[in-house]
Amino acid sequence: MKLNKTYLLLTILLFTIETLIAIYLKTGFIRHTFGDFLCVILLYCFFKTFIKGHHFKIAVIVLAIAFTVEFLQLTNFLELFNLHNNQLAKLILGSTFQISDLVAYSLGIISVIILEYKVYKLWIT
Question: Which residues are listed as membrane-spanning (predicted)?
Answer without folding.
Answer: 7-25, 31-51, 58-82, 102-120
